[in-house]
Amino acid sequence: MPSVYIKTYGCQMNERDSEAVAAQLVARGWSLAQSEATADVVLLNTCSVRDFAEQKAINKMSNVVGTARSEKRDQIVGFMGCMAQSRGQELIDKLPDVDLVLGTQKFHRAAEYLDELLAGTRKKIVDTEAEAKSEATIREHLLNGSAKTSVSAFVSIMQGCNQHCTFCIVPATRGEERSRTIPDIVAECRELVARGVREITLLGQIVTSFGRREKRDEWQVARDATDVSLVTRHPSPVTPFVQLLDAIHELDGLERIRFTSPHPKGYGDDLVEAYARLPKLCESAHIPLQSGSDRILKLMHRGYTREKFLGIIQKLRQAKPNIGIYTDIIVGFPGETEEDFEQTLSLCREVKFDNAYIFKYSERRDTPAATMPDQVPQAIREERNERLLNLVNEIAARKYDAFIGRQVQILVEGPSKKNAARYTGRTRCNRIVLFDGSARHQGQLMDVKIERTGSFTLYGDPAVVNL
Ligand code: SAM
User: Fold this and answer.
1) Are 387 and 356 in contact (CB under 8 A)?
2) Is the CB of 287 under 6 A from ligand 1?
3) How many Å apart are CA 327 and CA 312, to the nearest integer?
4) Is the CB of 160 under 6 A from ligand 1?
5) Of 199, 215, 148, 200, which is closest to residue 423 (Cα–Cα)?
6) pLDDT(144) > 80
7) How many other CB atoms are there within 10 angstroms of residue 152's CB atom?
8) Cβ proximity of 137 and 108 under 8 Å
9) d(CA 76, CA 65)
10) How many CA within 13 A on the CB side of residue 382?
11) What is the phi-psi region of residue 52: left when phi exceeds 0, alpha when psi lies from -120 to 50, beta otherwise?
12) Ligand 1 centre from 438 Cα, in Å?
């Protein structure tokens, strides 16, 4: 049987899509190659969020096909995911050795198309068509592929985005919001727990918009069909996303629930209250800010103000004082002045994020921001990126240092990639902890005392608290 090597660019949704494609092939007897040089098939799962990510994937593909040609190796190569969706045939026109271009609604067709290409019944395949119900096809997991994934798994609950932020290409690459049903997701989570998973992270482009588009009667049918013990009995009306959290929370054997990525508009009182009410919902929140300036937030079409954002943080900290808060920020959005940027800096000083993913604004084709006036010069984007990074790192380091001497609960994921004598786990608020461990710790929930800190890492000692 053939072997496949999949390289993934971008977010956790992309990682999850790659895992589902790999699992689909493994289920048919394929093996997973350790490198592209030894694989019969190489697939690049692409990201379009920034131009840099697209260029990286294109360069990688040029190298892969160039090496295969010079070594006279027969290899099937393909692009899949976001860039495959947005560029389609154009990718084969640019790189004629590419055999397959698989869009974001077609991951489940990978095995069928690769069989056809390997058998030679088709020479090139480009499929970027929309497909109804494709949101429910990202299901298979590779739990034995890595020791870590058997403890913690990602579950894709929806696809697409309707927010249409002016900078963002995602509505074009992932399509309109489409959600799976609660019973279908719960069934997948139940299977994962039966296979040893103890932590589940729910995934979606705007995960908090889960189920909003689906009609109420459709939901009723789905909920009537499920095991009633799993359906929320919450008295007040809650969003479908919180209903889903309630349903998953009831799974015996599941210890922790997380989700990413949400939108600030999704942090209504019902979700804030869920943090206080549901013990398995980890006190960790990813809340993408993008900018601290109301003027820029409006130009971005974000749908909230600085004050509203600060109000959400305050409510979350009231509900869970030790909650870890993470964010995404874009610097150098068109028209961003020094004063606007100062607003972002001052918001970061006020909120004291536990970490922030900072992106230099990247023009994306066919997005409204790409043609807005006053594009910010690259040098200024770089400079603001560095200033913000310094501030965020300085605040984060202080917050990490405050853990020294504290006892925290971790879920042990497996051996550290860099040092196999060390084991790695995560706190409930999503900080990585390294400790001297062994295979018997794998999958355990245990307490450790934090002794020192490194760069975005805590070092713990379990012996002190687990005698
Ligand atoms: N749910 C998230 C939200 O509320 O915006 C969307 C996640 S998005 C797929 C991941 C991150 O990529 C965004 O939060 C944003 O910071 C960044 N991003 C998206 N488009 C970008 C662009 N054109 N330039 C730079 N960064 C961008």
Assistant:
1) no
2) no
3) 13
4) no
5) 148
6) no
7) 20
8) yes
9) 9
10) 3
11) alpha
12) 38
CA dihedral over 460, 462, 463, 464, signed as positive or negative: positive
Q: What phi and psi, each to the nearest 5 degrees, are found at residue 287?
A: -130, 100
Sign, CA dihedral 194-198-203-207, equals positive
Copy the structure tokens of residue 102: 């698989």
pLDDT confidence band for 167 (50 / 70 / 90): very high
Per-residue model confidence as pLDDT tens digits over 407-447: 999 999 999 988 888 999 999 999 999 999 888 898 999 99
- 207 within 8 A of 259, measured Cβ to Cβ: yes
CB atoms within 10 A of CB 425: 28
Q: Which ligand 1 atom sits nearest the alpha carbon of residue 367?
A: 23
24 sits in which H/E element: helix 12-27
Cα–Cα distance measured from residue 352 to residue 350, given in angstroms and rounded to the nearest whole number: 6
Pocket flag, ligand 1, residue 286 (CB < 6 Å): no
Half-sphere exposure of 45 (CA within 13 A, CB side): 23
pTM of the predicted model as reported, rounded to 2 decimal places? 0.93
